[in-house]
């Protein structure tokens, strides 16, 4: 099968390679000419045979909208656009309507696998009309892990990115739990080898997971994480998950708390804790520390 792929960063570049290894033709475009196969989006479209399929792997929001707008003027009825980035599911509905008005199909694909996807495969959560999704099945089969799992047609347009959003929300909560457990183990004198405790959990325990394996990898590189600053960014999906929970009246206490913990990581000196310290001093005479 022939595919145009826009965005050849860490994931997009590896996806291009994995699809090619499966025997398909991929023409890639990236703003970095050292990575790009095509000189421009117009050149990429020109080099594809109709009906064309173009997969977009660029940042969510304005960047994706810009590419969709340009493609809508370059593609023809019968072609298909796949958004494989981390777009908000509500944007999918907008893009599907815009492209559908010109007879161009739209599929949203939540993609998980990160830098390990080239060798291990990518988990794919896909939304869109069956006719458009089925046409892309050879590409999905090339990208997914070996075996029966790792791919799902989750539902109509938006379902792929909504599913990936929830996946990332769960990921937030799981990482927060490992982080809290690690900090508590490091805090006590009786546990003298926290790294090996984490390693011991990798086999035979109910909390073993790939995230745990990655935690052990990180501790092998920096046993007490002394080289890192306690700062964690959020890419958007955690916020969207919490917003969707509010809209649907679904309680998500663990995921919500994990998102807020990331906000706390960005504060050098927590204003909230200043008030807590002041109140403890007022009602109980508890000691306070002066600002440096």
UniProtKB/TrEMBL annotation:
Residues 160-287 form the 6-phosphogluconate dehydrogenase C-terminal domain. The keyword Ribosomal protein does not apply. Its EC number is 1.1.1.343. InterPro entries: 6-PGluconate_DH-like_C_sf, 6DGDH_YqeC, 6PGD_dom2, 6PGDH_C, 6PGDH_NADP-bd, HIBADH-related, NAD(P)-bd_dom_sf, Pgluconate_DH. Pfam families: 6PGD (PF00393), NAD_binding_2 (PF03446). The keyword Oxidoreductase applies. NCBIfam families: gnd_rel, PRK09599.1. Belongs to the HIBADH-related family. This is Phosphogluconate dehydrogenase (NAD(+)-dependent, decarboxylating). It comes from Streptomyces flavalbus.
């Amino acid at each position: 099968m022939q595919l145009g792929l826009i965005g050849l960063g860490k994931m997009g570049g590896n996806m291009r390679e994995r699809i090619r290894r499966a025997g398909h033709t991929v023409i890639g475009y990236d703003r970095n000419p050292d990575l790009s196969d095509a000189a421009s989006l117009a050149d990429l479209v020109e080099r594809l045979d109709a009906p064309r399929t173009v997969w977009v792997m660029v940042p969510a929001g304005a960047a994706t909208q810009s590419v969709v707008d340009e493609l809508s003027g370059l593609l023809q009825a019968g072609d298909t656009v796949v958004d494989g980035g981390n777009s908000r599911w509500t944007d999918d509905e907008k893009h599907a309507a815009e492209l559908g008005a010109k007879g161009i199909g739209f599929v949203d694909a939540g993609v998980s696998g990160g830098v390990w996807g080239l060798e291990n495969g990518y988990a794919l959560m896909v939304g869109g009309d069956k006719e458009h999704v089925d046409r892309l099945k050879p590409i999905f089969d090339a990208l997914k892990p070996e075996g029966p799992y790792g791919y799902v047609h989750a539902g109509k347009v938006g379902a792929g990115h909504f599913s990936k959003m929830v996946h990332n929300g769960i990921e937030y909560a799981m990482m927060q739990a490992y982080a809290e457990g690690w900090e508590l183990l490091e805090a006590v004198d009786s546990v003298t080898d926290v790294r090996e405790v984490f390693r011991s959990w990798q086999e035979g325990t109910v909390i073993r997971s790939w995230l745990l394996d990655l935690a052990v990898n990180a501790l092998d590189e920096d046993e007490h994480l002394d080289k890192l600053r306690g700062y964690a960014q959020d890419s958007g999906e955690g916020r969207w998950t919490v917003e969707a929970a509010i809209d649907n009246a679904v309680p998500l206490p663990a995921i919500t708390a994990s998102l807020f913990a990331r906000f706390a990581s960005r504060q050098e000196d927590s204003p909230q804790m200043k008030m807590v310290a002041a109140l403890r001093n007022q009602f109980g005479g508890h000691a306070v520390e002066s600002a440096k």
